[in-house]
Amino acid sequence: MERRDGEGKDDRPATGLGPVQLAVAWLETRIRRPASGSPAAPADKKVPRSTSSALATYGGIATLHSRHWDGPPREFFRVLDHLLFERLRPGARVLDLCCGAGHLAAALAECGYAVTGLDASLEMVRHARARVPRVPFAVADARAFSLRAVFDAVVCTFDGVNHLTGRGDLRSAFASVARALVPGGTFVFDALGEAAYEGPWRRSATVASEGTLYAVRGGYAPARRLAWTEISPARGGGNVVRIEQRCHEPRAVEDALTRAGLALATASPASAVGLTGDLAVGRTVYVATRPGA
After folding, report:
1. What region does 225 belong to: left with phi over 0, alpha with psi -120 to 50, or beta?
2. Spatial contact of 193 and 267, defined as CB atoms under 8 Å apart
3. DSSP assignment of 139-151
4. Contact 59, 49 (CB under 8 A)
């Protein structure tokens, strides 16, 4: 995919595909083949019915995500080096929550950690299993998964929590994380704030892919703290993809952690812990622990 030069074009570094570019690719699949709804999980997989429409969106773009979303996970590895690795013993058990196609899980496994990956998209998990066959991956909703308390750390990277837009979603997800952690275990995650949604997120662009132009528009409603990206054929017609995220107030994040039984250790600007450029704008990286060690 290439972008046409023009006013308001997206100048983000080509370290990987962000939600805008990934949604464009998903839109292409919808235009070529009528939608048939969310991908169905096999009988032995239990994905709650409350799983959001993002599941269908990211399931449809899993192949592209697997091929191109390698740069940002490598960059976030620096963040984990700052905040997590010194807390972990060799061979520690780590849960990669919202693992996508397994890029970060692969890097963690290469470092010798005993990694498990979890994602709501069956297609993403299939790619993850192909990428790292030795790592176990499971299909489940971040808001409603149940795993034994065996993990020394849980990581959830690149604004996974911002996709939790419903009332109570943060608390539900954090409670699941708390149940999965051993006493003294560490939870590292990041969240986008208003600086991101008022800045890079709101850029518009015209994207050319396989001879078709797409209009990409980002928006943010401060009163509702709701951000979205809409992608549609530039000349009209076809389907419109809409991806939504919630801009969680820091106090809401902290309250959800407390109610889930997790203790906030640090909340750092991403630029202070290893991220650079647009990836760092408006992004906060949190470290929380399960008390009791």
Report:
1. left
2. no
3. E--TTS----S-E
4. no
Ordered by start, the domain boundaries in the chain are 66-194+250-289
pLDDT tens digits for range 103-115: 899 999 999 999 9
Q: Distance of alpha carbon 289 from its chain centroid, rounded?
A: 20
Q: What is the pTM of this model?
A: 0.78
- Detail the DSSP E strand segments found in the chain: 2-3, 93-97, 114-119, 137-139, 151-156, 181-192, 204-209, 212-221, 226-233, 241-246, 263-269, 283-289
**Per 3-state DSSP, what percentage of the chain is helix, strand, and coil (rounded to 5)?**
35, 25, 40
Dist. CA 159–CA 193, nearest whole Å: 10
C-beta separation of 224 from 191 below 8 A: no
What's 66-194+250-289's CATH class?
alpha beta
∠ CA(50), CA(170), CA(111), 5° rounding? 100
Residue 290: name the closest of 150, 179, 135 by CA: 179
Q: What is the dihedral of CA 145, 169, 62, 128, to 10 degrees?
A: -30
Task: Evaluate if residue 2 carries a pLDDT over 60.
Answer: no
What is the band of 249 on the pLDDT scale with cuts at 50, 70, 90?
A: very high
Q: Which residues of 146-166 are buried (b: 16+ CB within 10 A; e: fewer)?
A: ebeeebbbbbbbbbbbbbbbe
Q: What integer pLDDT is reported at residue 271 of this predicted model?
A: 95
Per-residue model confidence as pLDDT tens digits over 151-169: 999 999 988 899 899 889 9
**% residues pLDDT > 70 (the chain):** 71
Closest CA to 175 of 139, 150, 143, 141: 143
- Name the residue among 68, 2, 30, 65 with its Cα closest to residue 205: 2
Q: Please give the pLDDT value at position 49.
A: 35
Cβ atoms of 37 and 56 within 8 Å: the answer is yes
Q: Give the burial class of 246: count Cβ atoms within 10 A of its Cβ; 0-12 exposed, 13-18 middle, 19 or more buried.
A: buried
Tokens of 22: 């990934």
